[in-house]
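To: structure desk
From: M.T.
Subject: fold request, one chain
Message: Could you run this one when you get a chance? Sequence is below, nothing fancy, just the single chain.
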Amino acid sequence: MVLYSLVKTIKKKYMQIKLQNCLNNFQNIALLGTDFETELGAEIKNESGEQWRIKIGNNVKMMGNIVCKASGQISIGDYSWIEEHSSIQCLHSVIIGSFCGIAAGVLITDNNNHPTELEDRISHRIRVAPGGPGYPGLKNGWELSNYAPVIIGDAVWICGGSTILKGVTIGDGAIIARGSVLTKDVEAYTVVAGNPAKKVKELKRPQESILEIAERILRK
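Reply: Done. Structure tokens follow.
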């Protein structure tokens, strides 16, 4: 019993050290707000190493992974929550508002990841094949693909397994149903679902602004 308790204590301490090392690494490559939290398994990759390219607000919990190319900029607002196995992939610009909930397995990307022209696709396969020359930096070659900014408003709820593709803007207060694939903009205070996602419901618009609602709740 004493040995079990000792092993448990040592394991807990080891995990705490690993988590602190992870947090220290994040602080070196991103601008983190106050009361930022993460968990083991989360990852931030910043190709340029410039902190200002990844800005995360106050009271954010990030359990997924973030990949930012040297040309990219990512902004995440206050009180947003990013679940495990979710991924934010940025070549140019991804903006996520405050009070957003991003569930597990969500993919948000502002680029195609790979080129679309046939010759370029063949060239890509040769480059990444065993023995190929590969790519510099993060070695993913995203810089050869098409891209367009992704903008997600405040208080947006993106349910599990959804995909947000390049060039999409999601209005404030919208809900993205589980497993949806977004290729077009989403109006504020609507629910969309499906592949490709379509509007299925309109939500009641609040009389107060999202910030006013949040401030009222925080005062309680």
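Reply (cont.): Residues 2-111+147-219 form a domain with the UDP N-Acetylglucosamine Acyltransferase; domain 1 fold (CATH 2.160.10.10). Let me know if you need anything else for the meeting.
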